[in-house]
Amino acid sequence: MASGEEDGTVEEKETNNKKRTKGAIATAWLTFYNIAMTAGWLVLAVAMVRYYLQKGTHKGLYRNIARTLKFFQTFALLEVGHCAIGIVRTSVIVTGVQVCSRIFMVWFVTNSIRQIQNEESVILFVVVWTITEITRYSFYTFNLLNHLPYFIKWARYNMFIVMYPLGVIGELLTIHASLPYVRRSGMYSLRLPNKYNVSFDYYYFLIIVMLSYIPLFPQLYFHMLRQRRRVLHGEIIVEKDE
Ligand SMILES: CCCCCCCCCCCCC/C=C/C(=O)SCCNC(=O)CCNC(=O)[C@H](O)C(C)(C)COP(=O)(O)OP(=O)(O)OC[C@H]1O[C@@H](n2cnc3c(N)ncnc32)[C@H](O)[C@@H]1OP(=O)(O)O
């Protein structure tokens, strides 16, 4: 005689399989992690709105929120670990590129070069990241709790269509604005001659980083378009090894 699960739809079976493989401890940890991250990015959103309402300008906003931003964006490194140990079904490479590029933007560009912190482009990518992350982490939280409102699912898999390019524009303009300061100061660079006999020019490194968006960003974007088709339209997607 067929069991209840064998009688269920393909979708039900897939959900049951997923629950079994994830395990209670992993689910509890992910729920805690996602709630903490949603709260962190919400705190950031409230701080930005309050600052703007009080001061009427974006100047000084980055400095005001820098600690919270650095903390929560750095905390996101755990996501690479989640993929690596297999508690979320996401590619380590896709997540690694996404998280590392953000951490690089925060620590090695915006935080290191004070002169660019009041650029509009900084506010652009910080606002875009904040909206995206509040949506993404609340999606994961409600999903884990099996109470996912449709509008959150819809927002998770539609907003990126506009937000991703906007975020990338903000990031690229910020790196571009930093170039003259990096060239003048020679920061993070190593000139010859030195005892290691190696040279490194951060200015050219930043140009290479900017160019690397050309092959890497489309891959992230198309990955999200595939996820969108899978989740919103139920398409079965056979992913190549990323
Ligand atoms: C040294 C310097 C190097 C620099 C290199 C520079 C190059 C950089 C090029 C690209 C730069 C990009 C810059 C980024 C800018 C921005 O972010 S702009 C703002 C807009 N951004 C977005 O919209 C982000 C979109 N990206 C993402 O969401 C992720 O980062 C992702 C990794 C691409 C997400 O993909 P994925 O996880 O595969 O998709 P999901 O559908 O969300 O999840 C898949 C399954 O995994 C489960 N899951 C994932 N995470 C969690 C979690 N935390 N908790 C619980 N569950 C999770 C999810 O539920 C799915 O499960 P199933 O439904 O069971 O499959």
Automatic annotation (TrEMBL):
Catalyzes the third of the four reactions of the long-chain fatty acids elongation cycle. This endoplasmic reticulum-bound enzymatic process, allows the addition of two carbons to the chain of long- and very long-chain fatty acids/VLCFAs per cycle. This enzyme catalyzes the dehydration of the 3-hydroxyacyl-CoA intermediate into trans-2,3-enoyl-CoA, within each cycle of fatty acid elongation. Thereby, it participates to the production of VLCFAs of different chain lengths that are involved in multiple biological processes as precursors of membrane lipids and lipid mediators. It comes from the Eukaryota. This is Very-long-chain (3R)-3-hydroxyacyl-CoA dehydratase. It catalyses: (3R)-hydroxyhexadecanoyl-CoA = (2E)-hexadecenoyl-CoA + H2O; a very-long-chain (3R)-3-hydroxyacyl-CoA = a very-long-chain (2E)-enoyl-CoA + H2O. It is a multi-pass membrane protein. It is found in: Endoplasmic reticulum membrane; Membrane. Belongs to the very long-chain fatty acids dehydratase HACD family. Its main location: endoplasmic reticulum. Keywords: Endoplasmic reticulum, Fatty acid biosynthesis, Fatty acid metabolism, Lipid biosynthesis, Lipid metabolism, Lyase, Membrane, Transmembrane, Transmembrane helix. InterPro entries: Tyr_Pase-like_PTPLA (IPR007482). GO terms for biological process: fatty acid elongation; sphingolipid biosynthetic process; very long-chain fatty acid biosynthetic process. Pathway: Lipid metabolism; fatty acid biosynthesis. The lineage of its organism: Eukaryota, Metazoa, Chordata, Craniata, Vertebrata. Its EC number is 4.2.1.134. Coiled coil: none annotated. The chain crosses the membrane at residues 32-53, 157-182, 202-222. One of its GO terms (molecular function) is very-long-chain (3R)-3-hydroxyacyl-CoA dehydratase activity. It is an enzyme of class 4 (lyase). GO terms for cellular component: endoplasmic reticulum membrane.
